[in-house]
Each structure stands twice: as C-alpha cells, then as structure tokens.
Amino acid sequence: MSFGFRHQYPRLAELLDEETSHNAELNYFRRIPDSLQFALMPRLAEEVYGLVERDLAQLDPANWDDFRQKIFEKHKNKGPDPTRGYSALFSTLNEVKGYGVLKQEGCSDIRLVEETRRRSPDWRAVGPDGGDVLLEVKTILRSDDEVDFDSGNGEALEQGRQPAVRRVWPEMSDGFKNKIRSQIGNAKEQMDRYAAAHGIIGCRQIVLAVAELDFDLSSGSQAFCKARRFIEACGADQSVEVRTTFIGLQWPCEEPTELAPIE
User: Fold this and answer.
1) Is-contact 146 212, C-beta < 8 A?
2) DSSP state of 238
3) Is there a contact between 139 and 90 (Cβ–Cβ < 8 Å)?
4) Residue 207 class from Cβ within 10 Å (0-12 exposed, 13-18 middle, 19+ buried)?
5) Fewer CB under 10 Å: which end of the chain, C or N?
6) CB neighbours of 77 closer than 8 A, spacing ≥ 6?
7) 47, 41 Cβ separation under 8 angstroms
8) How far apart are CA 16 and CA 29, in angstroms?
C-alpha cells in the first residue's frame, strides 16, 4: 500500500490492514489501492473512497474501534454477491452516516449498539433534552429489474452487441412504495423491541434512509423530489422521524411546508 493512500485515506487503510490480518481473500478493501480506478482516475476515486473516508472520520475513537470490529465480524471471508457486488458491505458502511445525523441533531453520548441475535437499532444517544434517542439506518437499493437491465447491457457492450433501450417512466411503482413502507416498518419494530428490552420509555426514534433510486426516479428533479418526500412522509404513520440521503445523482428540492400525504 502506498504512503499516499495511507495518508489520504487513513481509516480505509486501517480496514485494509485489518482485512489482511483476517485473510479475507475476496474482501473489497484489498482491491482499493491497486484498482485502475484509483490509479488512473484519481478524481473519481476521491468521489468514491473520499466519501467513505469522510463518513468514517466522523467517528470518535471508541465508536471507530467498535465499528471496525463490526465490519469484519459481518464481512470477513466474504466475496461479492453475483448480481449486486459489494452492496452488503456498503450497507454496513452506510450505518456510519447515522452517527453524523445524531451529531447534527445535537445529541451526545452517541454509541454504536452491539449486535445480538435479536435485531437492534444501529445507534443510541442522548438528545439535547436529555431523553433517549434511537436511530436505525436502512439502505434502500435499486430494484432487481434495474440491476438486471444494467447487467444485461454491460454484457451486451462487452460482446459487441447493441444495448437495450427502454422508456423512462418517472413515477413511483407500487413495488417501490411497498419496499419503503416495509423498510421503515422493520426499523420501527427493531427500535421498539430494543426500547422494551432495555426499559426505555418514550424515546425519540429516527430512521435514516440511504436510498439508491432507479434511473426512472433519479433522472429528473420532479420524480426525485416526489420520491424523497414520499420516503420522509412514510414515518408519520409509524411515529418515527425519517431522514434521507441518496447514493448517486441528486436534485435540489424545495422544502415543503408540511409532509406530502402518503399515496
């Protein structure tokens, strides 16, 4: 590993060192310093790895130690999924974004919740008013249809065939809406169970949705903003606060005076 990589991405470098000690042959981190993307396209590498590094750099030393251990307990000796690559690994890395949300909310004593057999929220903190705050991060991935379309076109280009085309339909499908409701409902259930098991009464509950939208919903501002508002509004029915952040292309949205109704 070059000094430049270790200097520019110190916490990613620690993950690489840890990965080597665990002998995870197919782990993603081993590929970073030697990737063509890193060597030939430093600006693109900064956009990818720099974002991850900045998320990791937010963590205080104690939470960093716990989070680093969590990554390798969950992902050591695991290779990429045949269709979705390292999405499971990045879903775990996205959990760090919850720490930043809690800091922005003015919380203190932010702690990574230890994973057990019972599913629990990712973070617990003390709010500005002294009350308990729980936060669960949910990564919402692209649909299977979107992944299959991109994969098929990638194969076509490699084989010198004409890629497929399709009509863009910038509307939220029932499948998308149901997936969002299900993810937020699961997060609510996790936080409720944890609160009950630990005697926490009346705590504030936050879901951070890290969404990777299909092209239909990310290709224009109107569809993107409608999807964002739908995600955030889904928490109202379940008495949770929903925050959003997005992977890939984003559009500026005017803040509504009130949450849009659930369709």
Assistant:
1) no
2) G
3) yes
4) buried
5) C
6) 22, 23, 24, 25, 26, 27
7) no
8) 5
**Whether the Cβ atoms of residue 184 and residue 238 lie closer than 8 Å to each other:** yes
Quote helix, strand, coil % in the chain, to nearest 5: 50, 15, 35
Place of tokens 């659930």: 262
Domain boundaries, the chain: 1-94, 106-263
Between CA 191 and CA 197 the distance in angstroms is 10
Which contiguous run of DSSP H or E holds residue 205?
Answer: strand 204-211
Which one, of 217, 209, 214, lies nearest residue 182 by Cα?
Answer: 209
C-alpha distance from residue 211 to each of 106, 131, 165, 229, 249 (Å) = 24, 28, 24, 12, 11
Tokens of 40: 């030939």
CA-CA-CA-CA torsion sign (134, 62, 106, 213): negative
Tell me which amino acid residue 89 is: L
Do 177 and 230 touch, CB atoms closer than 8 A?
A: yes
Q: Can you tell me which residue has the tokens 């990638």? A: 154
pTM of the model: 0.86
Which tokens go with 30? 């081993």
Continuous segment of H or E residues that includes residue 108: strand 108-112
Q: What is the mean pLDDT of residues 220-236?
A: 91
Indicate the SS3 state at residue 240: coil
As a whole number of angstroms, the distance between CA 144 and CA 142 comes to 7
Place of tokens 């928490």: 235
Q: What is the pLDDT of residues 135-187, one digit of tens each?
A: 999 999 988 788 777 777 777 788 888 888 877 778 898 999 999 999 999 99
Helix (H, G, I), strand (E, B) or coil at 167: coil
First-to-last alpha carbon distance for the chain, in angstroms, is 51
Residue at 177: amino acid letter = K
